[in-house]
Amino acid sequence: MIFRCIVHLVVFISAVTLSQQSTPPPEQCDFDSPAIKSMKPSFGGIDGFYNIAKGISDGLQNTPNSKTYNDLNNLIFRGGAVTYDQVITDMVVNQIGAIIFWSVGFVFVLAALVLGIATCIWQCCYSCVPKETSIRSEITGYVYAFLLFTVFSFTLTGLILFNVAESNLIDSVDDGMVYTNQISGDLNNVISNGGNQINCEVTETTTQTFTNMRTLIGGYSSNVVDGTQNEVGVTAVNNFDNVDFANKNQATEVAANALKASLANVHSNDQTCMSNKKTLEDQFQTVTVTLQSLTNIANEVRTSPDLIAINTQIDTIKNQIQKQADNASGSINTTQAQINDSMSSITNMLDNVQQTINSVINSLKSAHRDLVGSSAYSALKIGVRLVVTIPACIGCCFCILAFVAVVVSLRKQDGLAIKLSSAVLSAFYSTITISIILLLFSSLAFVLGWFTSAMCVPIFEDDNYQLFHLMNQTIAPVNGVGSPDVINIGNVLESCNDPSMTLYTAINGSTVISADSITSQLNLDQYRDQADDQIMQQQNLSFPMDPAWKQFITDLNTNTQAAKQAPLTSCGDNDAVDKYNAYIQTLDISNTKSEEFYNNMQTLSDQSPKTTTIAKQQNDNYFNSGDLQINQSISTLMTNLQTKVFMCRPLVDIYNNGGFVMCEQFGKPIQGLWAAIGLAGLFLFFLSILLLLTFRWLKTHSKETAGSGKDNLYGTDGTRKLGDQKKSKSSEEHSSPPASTKITEPL
User: Fold this and answer.
1) Residues 652/503, Cβ–Cβ less than 8 Å
2) C-alpha to C-alpha distance for 100 and 107, rounded to whole angstroms
């Protein structure tokens, strides 16, 4: 279930990235990934034995066929499409190599049965004892003693390994919830952390970007129209203060009259004074008329039909642009709402995943509590240990018994050695039975190891993720338009082995969501184009200018320059000089304001026929400026999704930890169980053969005790016939030889 949650998470995150939009860099978002501690177990010195057993079991697994992969894919991603029985059949029953290896155990069981039955029949119909004239070899005794010691060592080793393996397995079962809680805690932490990163990145980005866009849209029409008015010249004409202009001109007229009166009192004979005086007196009338005319023109322009028509046209353009701005604002609000809904769905999906995990964990806790607290579990632990340990210990005792018998017999073949030989024969039958029991238990335990390897090899121990390369998940396209996006789980796992890989990059998120798709979803260009169409539908107007206006400006400027060149300092009249300076100051102001007024009208006259073109260009420039801001935000979001948001290596670490728990924390002790029991059972089978051989060797006399008078009691093969034994006993009762010469017959 944990593995299934991990795979579902990989697919689910594609939907997470799928539903996002825009971005400025949200520096306050925490992009740190949680550290996942490795759960790879260490069993100390027994690890080597576990690895051998696991290597044998894993090596027997065939590469699953396409049907197996498809069934497993259906089981993980399409619950109910196949049953667990089908998958188990595919992944376990079809493993020919494992079945053959498993059958070897039954071959030894059958061999042990045959050996026991054959020996029993042989003993019943014939004596297992060699004929009394046979002379044994002491070297054979030493060989048997060495073999007995070797068999004892391996049997005892198997017994010890079994008890260690069972203890490790029991500890793993007892601590099962510790491992489960760690994996589920890590998975919840990674999901929560990754979801928070995505939520923070997208929320910060969209909030800031859409706030900027609303500000942009809010001033859209005003900014475009203001830019158009400025470039056309309407703003300058509208903003020109004709009242102030009239006041300035009036002040100039007053100054001119004052200077004129002062000049009437100047009677200097200085030629320069007289010339400058005449220049000034000649222009007073012209300047006064010109200023009055310009004042009237300024007042007339303010209310002229041409200017009113141009202002009306500008207002119309502004209204059209504002209409499109309102539409764009509505689109932005809709997009923002969609993003909020998407974020809510993401949060709900995260909550659902975590609730599913928590539900599984709670179920496991309940099941684990019921298991470890049940009397059946306690009885099973003790029962399995006793069923294996007691027979194995008995077998070891038989081995010691036979070893002692051989050693005693080598020293002296007396009554004790002969009595021990009978015990060795009894031990043979018991050992046969024990070896059969242990071999059957080993075969049963191997089924568990077989099943573990069948799951672990293709799922957790394939560095190429061959199984997952056959597993594809589809993500529905944005807005339901286009083909579904396909995510290959194997490629995702391979990519996420890179510590710097983000989930967005691992699933090739650009096929799911990209800058182009976000821009296309916003589709603000349509509002720009619609505004352009509305602008270009307006008629271009003109602002004609009277040629006389230019002459007024020229005359005023000429008189101003001439007045500046006619100072009265040479006249020696201070009042005239003061009045002159006042006149020049006001005249220069009137001249400057008049030029400003005329230039404003000239600009309006030149640009008014281009009003629609200018407005369209202003509209495009403003939209392009907004697009630039949006694209920069989107680019930042894409960069962060590709390099910072939700590093996916922790998912692989959790996946690996799942493999460590299943295949090593539980799997290795399971593999050790069948191997240890099988080791003890196999060597006890060899011990049974060795016990039979030892029994015959113990019954073979040394040179000092070998008999020579009863050859007729044995067949040609050296074994005594059962019927002849009875005749021999009867004849010996009637003719008892002297005790000093009688040879004791072994039984």
Assistant:
1) no
2) 10
